[in-house]
Design goal:
Structural class: alpha+beta
Largest sheet: 5 strands, mixed
Shape: globular
Helix content: 25-40%
Order of helices and strands: EHEHEEEH
Strand content: 15-25%
Low-confidence stretches: none
Mean pLDDT: 92
């Protein structure tokens, strides 16, 4: 597990009126409120209906606008600045997150194919948080 002093921000990208976005927020809130994630991760909702949300989405440069909701995890440095966490195994097969896993950074975006069915499961969310722990241990 990562050091307790490490802090992370889970950026959730969504839009008003999106039921899948609301579900992702509820699932993530429940997960982040429980050990071992509690106190180490904070969620920041990036509303794509606002200028600030669109700027954050564009700065990420790795999310597909057709695959919202999405989430991307950043590490908060000693200086308070956030940095994206690189995916340690880009393109590797993933039996939990499948095609929802981001290629370049640690995060997810919705897979609307017949296989993904537009669902980000609690197991996918937890797999991403475990990836953050593994990246911190390196």
């Amino acid at each position: 597990m990562a050091e307790d002093s490490q802090k992370y921000v889970v950026h959730v990208f969504g839009k008003e009126g999106c039921a899948k976005c609301a579900m992702l927020n509820r699932r993530l809130d429940a997960l982040l409120a429980s050990p071992p994630w509690q106190g180490r991760f904070v969620k920041k909702y990036e509303d794509l209906g606002t200028e600030d949300g669109l700027v954050a989405f564009c700065l990420a440069q790795c999310l597909n606008p057709s695959r919202v909701p999405a989430m991307l995890v950043t590490r908060v440095g000693a200086d308070g600045r956030e940095s994206y966490i690189e995916n340690p195994n880009p393109g590797a097969a993933d039996s939990v997150c499948r095609r929802s896993r981001l290629y370049q950074y640690v995060g997810l975006q919705t897979d609307y194919s017949a296989e993904g069915k537009g669902i980000i499961t609690p197991e996918m969310l937890e797999a991403v948080l475990r990836d953050v722990d593994r990246a911190a241990a390196v």
